[in-house]
Amino acid sequence: YRDYADLGRPHAVQNVFAAPELALEPRRWCYLAVGCLSYRGYFDAGAARRLAEELRAAGDDVYVADIPAYSTLGWFDDPLLNTFIDWPTARLAELMFHELAHQRLYIADDTAFDEAFATAVGRLGAERWLRQRGEAREREAYAADRRRREDFLRLVGTSRDRLAALYGSSRDDAEKRAEKRRILTEMRDHYGELKRGWGGYSGYDRWFDRDLNNAKLAGNSTYHRWVPAFLALYEREGRDFAAFYRAAAVLGQLPPAERAARLEALSSESASRDGARGE
Asked: What is the mean pLDDT of each run of 10 residues along the chain (279 residues)?
């Protein structure tokens, strides 16, 4: 990162996520250069809004996400942007490592793999950077932020699992719609309980305020579902980034079904390790 650009708006792009009313599998859009993605991104907010309206009219759950940064996968020299330059130091480092990870490894047609790999690299990179260069207060603030994120992701993941079981059940559509509303309402209520445990921290309020639906949960899963798998792979490779990158590249070249099975096994390995540590 050598240049800076002020876009004159609070986000770099808007990504439109969509999923069926009674399913969690996200809609996909395919492009010549990058393959198929689980969202459609727009620099033009009006175009994003029009697509969202079309998808809602067709019956889909829709979520339009304001995205602070993106990667051109090394094709261009991406600048630092006004949309994130004022973030806390550790979060800024994490974001930069995330976006640079997309230049390191990108697998066409597997958004969940690509985003989880970059999310894991962002977290691991930020932690290492903080140990080497960060101040004590920055390390403490980042650790607190990470604990809140883990709480948030557990809450959303549990709700997503409940919805997946519901949608796969033999109940009729009317029952599924009613139970869906109940599960989403309970998730919002449980968030209120989390906030009290966080001392009133409100950083996730906007996420819960609107469009609490399948598309939003699918988008969250896209970025986070396989993160535990990549963290386990990093541990398996002796916490050596070069070895980790090579192992991730090998994983990315597997056929999709085999790749998903390996990621599932690594996720289970991560869960077992965390359970043994009492986390």
From this structure: 93 96 95 89 96 98 95 90 95 95 95 96 97 94 94 96 97 98 97 92 94 94 93 96 98 97 92 62
Structure pTM?
A: 0.89
pLDDT in tens, 78-109: 999 999 999 999 999 999 999 999 999 999 99
Token reading at 12:
């770099």
pLDDT digits (tens, 9 = 90+) for 252-273: 999 999 999 999 999 998 776 6
- DSSP for the chain, please give it: ---EE--SSS-SEEEEEEE-TT--PPP-EEETTTEEESSEEES-HHHHHHHHHHHHHTT-EEEEEEES----TTSS-PPEETTTTTS-HHHHHHHHHHHHHHHH---TT-HHHHHHHHHHHHHHHHHHHHHHH--HHHHHHHHHHHHHHHHHHHHHHHHHHHHHHHHTSS--HHHHHHHHHHHHHHHHHHHHHHHHHTTS--TTHHHHHS--SHHHHHHHHHHHTTHHHHHHHHHHTTT-HHHHHHHHHHHHTS-HHHHHHHHHHHHHHHHHHHHHHT-
Q: What are the Cα distances from residue 7, in Å, to 10, 12, 68, 79, 88?
A: 8, 7, 11, 11, 20
In angstroms, rounded to a whole number, what is the distance separating the alpha carbons of residues 144 and 57?
Answer: 41
